[in-house]
Write a structure and sequence with these properties.
- The complex is a heterodimer of chains A (241) and B (249).
- Chain A is mainly α and 241 residues long.
- Chain A is built from ten helices and no strands.
- Chain B contains seven helices and nine strands.
- The longest helix of chain B has 20 residues, at 229-248.
- The N and C termini of chain B lie far apart (47 Å).
- The chains are: A mainly alpha (241), B alpha/beta (249).
């Protein structure tokens, strides 16, 4: 069924391309040629690598800080009251504003780009993990205390399995957000990466190359979803079935 | 070697919780008793008498109370305590084996887990996940886990409620068998006087909230006659009025 769905997509594309004309929507053949051209020059893999590096860095920073903040807010009421407003503000601040300000304040650097992406994702992670922290079962905590479980055992066997579903949700929603933002941030202030190349080809009105980069990027996102996130989800949910 | 720790000494002056309106609601008042750590003592009282709260206080889970809990015969340190909660409180994402192994010291001999599982009749379920078990089986695991720490004191909070009668009866027999094999103090909370008479050396009767100790009775029935329902009924009939009288006064 997945294969059929993919073929249907290609068919609609090809028909639309013939109908709309090659200038607006190139044929599959033209896009494939652009893809192979970029691949042969080593350009495609290099730019994808640069962008993925930024995605990974921003993801790790946002997950680490966001989880720490979220869990701390779940644990201590005072922190929750202190940061709750900030989190909501940050959550509603447009990604573009954060990116522009980051570049203005910290210069057109990689650190500013990665930081801007991370800050965009951070409140989402914090809120999800705060929910997770609040939902920890008091009964199991009492059990762990009565039986004198050490910190590590308590974390690994009692707390972490309860947080895992929330961590997975944060990873999912966080990644999909990062995919979208990272290109905008690259387009605004970096001279490499997929976002930069998209801007370049946009100025040249080179639609086949734009689509080639977009598809390669989408393919990687999908590969991570199928190869990493879904197996992880199955593993975490194993005991429920 | 004779056990070093001889007695549990409970002296709870008062224990209160904040009620829904913010005013303190007293759940325990003037609960004083001692028990040897090879004695089987049952606490019987109506729901809301603070029985569960008392167990939590003794286990050190709740320290916000007026009074003291002491263990004599030791340098003040609490001995190993096993706790069987009313709900089994197993980790649903860990196997039966891992649930028990978890409470052992880090470098302990894990074959003890297998032995315990055999003793509670679950040798074939070591790899099962708790959500797959029946309630009766989950309670056996909880019992095995509590015994895994080689407790000097075993606290049990209505561990056999909501089981059908034959299952509960089998678990009671199992508990007595295990207890004889490893003498320790058992403090067994129940609202069922018959269950208390069938199991305990001594029964502490609690009043309705705020829970007070209204009677401390040695069960006048030799253990070899506990299986006789008529004898148990007779003892119950003799003990029950003690609680009723207290509730009225």
């Amino acid at each position: 069924m997945r294969a059929a769905s993919f073929l249907l997509f290609l068919a609609i594309w090809e028909i639309a391309a013939r109908w709309a004309g090659a200038r607006n929507l190139p044929t599959i053949e033209a896009v494939a040629a652009a893809l192979l051209d970029e691949l042969a020059r080593g350009e495609l893999l290099h730019q994808l690598g640069v962008t993925l590096g930024r995605v990974l860095a921003a993801f790790i920073i946002a997950m680490a800080l966001g989880s720490a903040f979220g869990l701390a807010m779940a644990r201590w009421r005072a922190l929750d009251l202190l940061f709750d407003g900030w989190v909501v503000l940050l959550l509603n601040l447009p990604a573009l504003v954060i990116a522009v300000l980051a570049y203005v304040w910290f210069g057109l650097t990689d650190a500013a780009a990665i930081g801007a992406v991370a800050v965009n994702k951070l409140p989402l992670v914090a809120m999800t993990m705060r929910e997770g922290g609040r939902s920890l079962a008091g009964e199991l905590a009492e059990m762990a205390t009565v039986f004198h479980l050490g910190r590590w055992r308590r974390f690994r066997h009692v707390v972490a399995p309860q947080l895992a579903p929330f961590l997975l949700v944060a990873t999912r929603s966080g990644l999909s957000l990062i995919w979208k933002i990272v290109l905008v941030v690259e387009l605004l202030g970096r001279s490499d990466g997929v976002g930069f190349k998209l801007q370049l080809y946009f100025q040249l009105f080179d639609v086949p190359h734009i689509l080639a980069y977009a598809l390669a990027f989408a393919a990687i996102v999908q590969a991570i979803e199928w190869g990493l996130l879904q197996p992880l989800e199955r593993r975490i949910g194993r005991w429920r079935r | 070697m004779a056990p070093v720790i001889r007695e549990l000494e409970v002296a709870v002056r008062e224990k209160a919780f904040a009620g829904p309106d913010g005013a303190p609601r007293i759940v325990l008042r003037d609960v004083d008793f001692r028990m040897r750590l090879d004695e089987f003592v049952a606490i019987v009282g109506p729901s809301g008498a603070g029985k569960t709260t008392l167990l939590k206080i003794i286990a050190g889970l709740d320290t916000a109370f007026a009074g003291a809990v002491r263990f004599t015969g030791t340098a003040g340190a609490a001995p190993p305590i096993g706790f069987v909660f009313q709900e089994p409180r197993l980790l649903p994402w860990r196997s039966v084996f891992e649930n028990i192994a978890l409470v052992l010291p880090r470098h302990a001999d894990r074959s003890a887990v297998t032995r315990l599982l055999g003793e509670v009749g679950l040798a074939d379920f070591a790899d099962a996940l708790p959500p797959r078990l029946s309630l009766g089986m989950a309670r056996r695991v909880a019992l095995a886990r509590a015994l895994a720490v080689a407790p000097d004191l075993l606290l049990m909070d209505e561990p056999f409620v909501s089981l059908d009668r034959p299952t509960a009866e089998r678990l009671r027999v199992l508990l007595l068998t295990l207890w004889r094999a490893r003498p320790c103090g058992v403090l067994f909370v129940t609202h069922d006087l018959r269950e208390a008479v069938a199991l305990a050396d001594r029964i502490l009767l609690f009043s309705a909230a705020p829970g007070r100790l209204v009677a401390d009775v040695a069960v006048p029935l030799p253990r070899d006659r506990r299986a006789d329902p008529a004898a148990v009924d007779a003892v119950c009939a003799a003990i029950a009025p003690l609680q009723g009288r207290a509730a009225v006064s």
